[in-house]
Design a protein that fits this description.
With 439 residues, the protein is α/β, with parallel strands linked by helices. The protein has three domains: 7-122 and 254-325, FAD/NAD(P)-binding domain (3-Layer(bba) Sandwich); 125-251, FAD/NAD(P)-binding domain; 344-434, 2-Layer Sandwich (Enolase-like, domain 1). It is 23% helix and 29% strand. It is built from ten helices and 28 strands. It has helices at residues 15-26, 68-73, 142-152, 165-176, 197-209, 258-262, 311-325, 389-400, 407-410, 417-426, and strands at residues 7-11, 33-36, 76-79, 84-89, 100-104, 109-117, 121-123, 136-137, 157-161, 180-185, 213-216, 220-225, 231-236, 241-243, 246-249, 253-255, 267-268, 271-273, 286-287, 292-295, 305-306, 337-342, 345-351, 358-362, 370-376, 379-386, 403-405, 432-434. Strands 1, 2, 3, 4, 5, 6 and 19 form a seven-stranded mixed sheet that branches. The protein has a five-stranded parallel sheet with strand order 8-15-9-10-11, with helices on one face. Strand 13 (231-236) and strand 14 form a beta hairpin. GO terms for molecular function: oxidoreductase activity, acting on NAD(P)H. InterPro entries: FAD-oxidoreductase/Apoptosis, FAD/NAD-bd_sf, FAD/NAD-binding_dom, FAD/NAD-linked_Rdtase_dimer_sf, Reductase_C. It holds the Pfam family Reductase_C.
Length: 439
């Protein structure tokens, strides 16, 4: 039976969905909020899945962000293990023309006044012969992690297809527990879309030192199994067979846009198209997180549609979406930040380093402790900090204030970046530049 007091339905109970729902309450919204997720669990942290949880170092219950009781106390109804299969919009003067009814797979119908899509993404499928063999796994959800962990224990030879963050995090964890690990990456360097070439080289050397075999510019063309249907080898384009009793596929993610398409919203290959207020093309639905693509929120980033996959982005964009729903739109304008733990390597990134025309290394002799500062057209656009948390904090705060450090000054590791940035901000001392958002 439909709800009699329509409020907001949030489709997708991940990080973005939870952040949107809780932000509505923070802003004083007292209307009903229903958070619908197709997984059986309450909203949970995804980053540990490829790291501590996979290795059995993190308990399942500690992953839960907010449990059902906490949500109920804040007036948020959580629906798990169910999926929104269709949405019927209607023009209703009482709800400003924004309402409708969402129908769930269970048969339940939920009336709403406001609609938010935080549907996330799914792992990109491996389109190769043998991709359906036993022992071939992706990693996106808690169920994926449980299945992969069960297979990792008895495995001896692991092949990871894809040298992105998920692939390298899993590879580092598998190597740390004594597995033979090979990473196959079709590009000529690791993490080609996320980090600078200089840092790609650092990671290549670091993983190699730890015993992981890295094959760059190499394409997997087929997977081969035994008579029982379990994977036994990965075939490469040159005919080489890599022995494997576990294959982990990490070749990206595809935004979930089926519901948006059914609503007639503008959708691109990168996701549901939204504006700077997280508002979709119909002017009434909001979308946020991994499912959405919108203007680059980083004022020093390249203009144009941008989809960022990270917890901070999902959280911040979802908060913007909540404000838009309540009629208080504020542009989503923030410095992106990311992190990755690969074995004992801790990487923190502030800004967007793609298309940088200058990268400056800051650090001593330790090949695994450094900061790489990236510049474009003379402006600092990002920093990659490996084992350098103080530099990371300084760079992020500097970017938020529109500051730039002279590259020559930044290269000297004996002078704290915080001091250099303070000098720029004060307009004296170290050479530098200060700009305002949009410049």
């Amino acid at each position: 039976m439909a709800r009699t007091h329509p409020g907001t339905i949030v489709v997708g109970a991940g990080q973005a969905g939870l952040s949107l729902a809780t932000r509505l309450r923070e802003l004083g919204d007292t209307d009903p909020v229903v958070l619908v997720g197709d997984e059986d669990t309450p909203p949970y942290e995804r980053p540990p899945l490829s790291k501590g949880y996979l290795r059995g170092e993190v308990a399942r219950e500690t992953l839960v962000l907010r449990d059902r009781e906490w949500l109920a106390e804040h007036g948020i109804e959580l629906v798990t293990g169910d999926a929104v299969t269709s949405v019927e919009r209607r023009v209703d003067g009482g709800t400003g023309g924004t309402g409708g009814i969402a129908r769930l797979a269970s048969g339940r119908a939920i009336e709403f006044a406001r609609l938010a899509l935080t549907t996330g993404a799914v792992s990109r499928a491996l389109d190769l012969p043998g991709a359906g063999l036993l022992g071939v796994h992706c990693l996106r959800t808690l169920d994926d992690a449980d299945a992969l962990a069960a297979r990792l224990g008895p495995a001896r030879e692991v092949v990871v297809i894809g040298g992105g963050f998920i692939g390298l995090e899993v590879a580092a964890g598998a190597r740390a527990v004594g597995k033979s690990v090979t990473v196959v990456e079709v590009a000529g360097r690791l993490l080609p879309r996320a980090i600078t070439p200089m840092l790609s080289d650092v990671y290549l050397a670091a993983h190699t030192r730890r015993g992981t075999r890295i094959l760059l510019g190499t394409e997997a063309v087929a997977l081969h199994g035994d008579e029982g249907g379990a994977v036994r080898a990965v075939e490469l384009a040159d005919g080489t067979l890599l022995s494997a009793d576990l294959v982990v596929v990490g070749v990206g993610a595809v935004p979930r846009t089926d519901l948006a398409l059914s609503l007639g919203l503008e959708v691109s290959a990168a996701g549901i198209v939204v504006d700077e207020h997280a508002l979709a093309s119909d002017g009434r639905t909001v979308a946020a997180g991994d499912c959405a693509v919108g203007p680059n929120p980083f004022f020093r980033g390249r203009p144009g549609p941008t989809r960022l996959e990270s917890v901070p982005h999902a959280t911040d964009q979802a908060r913007t979406a909540a404000e838009t729903l309540l009629g208080h739109p504020a542009a989503y304008d923030t410095v992106p930040w990311f992190w990755s733990d690969q074995a004992d390597l801790r990487l923190q990134i502030a800004g967007l380093v793609a298309d940088a025309d200058l990268t400056v290394r800051r650090g001593g002799a330790d090949p695994e402790t450094m900061t790489l500062l990236s510049y474009r057209d003379g402006l600092l656009v990002g920093g990659e900090c490996l084992g350098s948390p103080h530099d990371y904090i300084a760079i992020k705060r500097g970017l938020e204030k529109g500051l730039t450090i002279d590259p020559a000054a930044a290269e000297d590791p004996t002078v704290p970046l915080k001091r250099l940035l303070r000098a720029v901000e004060d307009g004296a001392g170290t050479p530098g530049t200060r700009t305002t958002n949009g410049s």
